[in-house]
Amino acid sequence: MRGARAADTIRWVSPRGTIEVLDDYPYWVAKKFGYFGDIATTLEPGPSDATACVKLVDQKQADVGYPSPGVFSLGLTQGIPLVSVFEMGGADVFDFAFRKGEAPKSVKDLEGKTIVLGSAGWQAICDPMLKAAGVDITKVKYVDAGWPTWGTAVAQGKGDTR
């Protein structure tokens, strides 16, 4: 009988289309401090889709992904058999930016507003945070402006916040 052993290689895929963001620091720390041991690893930018890493792991096109808690929960809800082995924090983190002088007094004031996203999958991150703040999420509109242009979409009047 053969004993269990670790994989020879691990393919870690980022859901952001880049690997130059703070969200991927757990990979870089683990690699720097030798936590992977002799296992060869690669970190690859996946498609700019918030749900990409859970889909790619499910389809066996990646071994590891780092979804936000909201995206992880969304994957579970959709029946994807995922296992979470670590998390930087148990809550989603998402910042909102506004045109100068247009920031609301509270998160609750986002009801009735349009939020511009870099990926439609980010709604799975925003909805739980807004709901926890007392926002009726059925009164929030989302616009997927795409990763490269979501930052400028609010300045162009395509939404109230990003």
Question: What does this protein look like?
Answer:
- It is a single chain.
- The longest helix has 10 residues, at 123-132.
- This protein has helices spanning 25-32, 52-58, 69-77, 123-132, 150-153; strands at 9-14, 40-45, 64-65, 114-117, 141-144.
- The protein is of the alpha/beta class.
- It has five helices and five strands.
- Helix 3 (69-77) crosses helix 4.
- The model has no long low-confidence stretch (mean pLDDT 84).
- The termini are far apart.
- Helix 1 links the parallel strand 1 and strand 2.
- It has a three-stranded parallel β-sheet, covered by helices on one side. Strands 4-5 form a two-stranded parallel sheet.
List the total number of helices.
5
Structural class: alpha/beta
Q: How far from one another are the termini? A: 55 Å
Order of helices and strands: EHEHEHEHEH
Largest sheet: 3 strands, parallel
- Overall 3D form: elongated
The whole-number mean of residue pLDDT values reads 84
Strand order, main sheet: write it out: 2-1-3
Low-confidence parts: none
Number of strands: 5
- Rounded to an integer in angstroms, the radius of gyration calculated over CA atoms is 18 Å
Question: Beta-strand percentage?
Answer: 5-15%
Could you estimate the helical fraction of the residues in percent?
A: 10-25%
